[in-house]
From TrEMBL:
Residues where FMN binds: A67, G68, F69, D70, K71, T91, N143, N176, K217, T245, G267, G296, Y317, T318
PANTHER family, per the entry: DIHYDROOROTATE DEHYDROGENASE (QUINONE), MITOCHONDRIAL (PTHR48109:SF4), DIHYDROOROTATE DEHYDROGENASE (QUINONE), MITOCHONDRIAL-RELATED (PTHR48109)
An annotated Gene Ontology molecular function: dihydroorotate dehydrogenase (quinone) activity
Species: Salinimicrobium catena
Descriptive protein name: Dihydroorotate dehydrogenase (quinone)
Pfam families reported in the protein's UniProt record: DHO_dh
Co-factor: note: Binds 1 FMN per subunit.
Enzyme Commission numbers on file: 1.3.5.2
Cofactor (UniProt): FMN
Membrane topology: Peripheral membrane protein
Length: 339
């Protein structure tokens, strides 16, 4: 129904407008009696064989929603009803910011892809915390970043603010230094500043009675040498793991008219590269740390390839938009079929 009826209608409208419209409709629908129960019945796959214990957390299934979809933690309960094992919110920054100028979100239909240059648009971490206080049983990841106006030499301060504010309200953290849509942000992926940032957060983590897993989200555009640096950094800082990968700045092989738009590319063109990065990190590190695989998962087979390449968990974003919630169910069923 989604691909034959709902998606064609939604795809006739500006993608950012559709996003806000969909959020508004889902909030209203879930207030109606029986809607949440029906959605869970239709899409959730409940089976103990799907459960995963990764970096000390128990996931009811290994399929999550990637950051960027529910930036402000406005719809995590409703989205979890569609069968996600976990929801990652953000990227959140200390202060609210509008992001980049519109238009900043583009569908590349013939490539089954999306280009975005949103620019960490969000209402600020304090606003999200108020919503997260109402969370009852959804496993939440908190993706954190820096404000656009914050210079890189003071970026650590922004990450600390978000870390401290979210600590009691999320199950794990993701340090985002790999978005291509905040000027100079990717410079923080260099070995020295990244090690300093992660060590600082780990020190604050260690000072807590109970620590939270900290993960690093990396770009798919890193070279093999840079990926080896990432492995060294993970070992040195003792963070919990890596999310591979963020969006790409590559435009190789695209055919859509919008292919030259500035921003990060996600979707089918990223499928193979994201899997390559996962496999490289897993093999070169000797499976030393967990990896969450994300990037171009458009089918159950794509998800299985990432799991077989070394990912412990996977996340959807563009695949969820193009394929709908049925994709979550298909992935979980395929995992069970192969178990």
């Amino acid at each position: 129904m989604y691909k034959t009826l709902i998606q064609p209608l939604l795809f006739k409208i500006d993608p950012e407008t559709v996003h806000h419209f969909t959020f508004s409709m889902l909030r209203k629908l879930f207030k109606l009696p029986m809607v949440e129960r029906f959605v869970k019945y239709r899409f959730q796959v409940e089976d103990p064989r799907l459960e995963r214990e990764v970096f000390g957390l128990k996931f009811k299934n290994p399929v999550g929603l990637a950051a960027g979809f529910d930036k402000d933690a406005k719809l995590f309960r409703e989205l979890s009803a569609f069968g996600f094992g976990f929801i990652e919110i953000g990227t959140l920054t200390p202060k609210p910011q509008p992001g980049n100028e519109k238009k900043r979100l583009f569908r590349l239909k013939s490539d089954k892809a999306i280009i975005n240059r949103m620019g960490f648009n969000n209402g600020g971490v304090a606003e999200a915390v108020e919503r997260l206080k109402k969370n009852k049983n959804v496993l939440i990841g908190g993706n954190i970043g820096k404000n656009k106006v914050t210079p890189n030499d003071r970026a650590v301060e922004d990450y600390i603010i978000c870390f401290d504010a979210l600590f009691d309200h999320v199950d794990y953290f993701v340090v985002n230094v790999s978005s291509p849509n905040t000027p100079n942000l990717r410079e923080l992926q260099d070995k020295e500043p990244l090690t300093r940032l992660l060590n600082t957060l780990q020190e604050r983590n260690a000072a807590r009675p109970v620590q939270k897993p900290i993960l690093l989200k990396i770009a798919p555009d890193l070279t093999d040498s840079q990926l080896l640096d990432i492995i060294d950094i993970v070992k040195e800082t003792r963070i919990a793991g890596v999310i591979a990968t963020n969006t790409t700045i590559s435009r190789e092989g695209l055919t859509s008219e919008e292919k030259d738009e500035v921003g990060g590319l996600s979707g089918k063109p990223l499928t193979n590269r994201a899997t390559e990065v996962i496999r490289f990190l897993s093999e070169k590190s000797g499976k030393a740390f967990p990896i969450i695989g994300v990037g171009g998962i458009m089918s159950a087979e794509d998800a299985m390839e990432k799991l077989e390449a070394g990912a412990s968990l996977v996340q959807l974003y563009t695949g969820f938009i193009y394929e709908g919630p049925e994709l979550i169910k298909e992935i979980n069923k395929e995992i069970l079929r192969r178990s």
